[in-house]
Amino acid sequence: QVRLVESGGGLVQAGDSLRLSCAASGFTFNRYTTGWFRQAPGKEREFVGRISWIDGSTYYAEFVKGRFTISRDTAKNTMYLQMNTLKFEDTAIYSCAADRAPYIGPGGHWDYWGQGTQVTVSS
User: Fold this and answer.
1) What are phi and psi of 66, to 5 degrees?
2) For 95-109, how does the pLDDT look when each residue is reduced to its tens digit (9 = 90+)?
3) Cβ-based neighbour number of residue 76 at 10 Å
4) Whole-angstrom Cα distance, residue 71 to residue 28?
5) Contact 23, 7 (CB under 8 A)
6) Coil, helix or strand for 30?
7) How far apart are CA 97 and CA 103, in angstroms?
8) What are the pLDDT digits (tens) for 26-74?
9) Which CB contacts under 8 angstroms, 24+ apart, belong to 87-90?
10) Which pLDDT does position 123 carry in this prediction?
11) Contact call for residues 97 and 34 (beta carbons, < 8 A)
């Protein structure tokens, strides 16, 4: 059974840092590109970034460059999202996704999705 389980969300203040985790099981993690998305209340889901399984390269949405970093630990089948200098507008449900395409983009059809974890940033 394929599972992607996010954790690490919570309530923080603007300027704080937070690290999210995405634990994968049920598929060959080191053969899947994984990424993060977020959805704020009343808004559409938006792409945050992804890390390629083939070379570890990362690609980020413009709004997070320099503040967020995606990494992964293949030994633990886990991907991380380190978020620094959080802003009120980063408040959203953050979800992880996985796909076999090495360089899948924001608009791609991702194979697997997690349920998400809430991140709330108070101003």
Assistant:
1) 90, -15
2) 999 999 999 988 889
3) 12
4) 17
5) yes
6) helix
7) 13
8) 999 999 999 999 999 999 999 999 999 999 999 999 998 799 999 999 9
9) 87/14, 87/121, 88/14, 88/121, 88/122, 88/123, 89/40, 89/121, 90/38, 90/119, 90/121
10) 87
11) yes
**SS (HEC) of 41-89:** CCCCCEEEEEECCCCCCEEECHHHCCCEEEEEECCCCEEEEEECCCCHH
Give the tokens for residue 102: 């090495």
- CA dist., res. 93 & res. 82, Å (int): 15
Please give the DSSP secondary-structure letter assigned to residue 31. G
Tokens standing for residue 76 = 């633990």
For 105, the enclosing helix (H) or strand (E) is none
Note the pLDDT of residue 106. Answer: 87
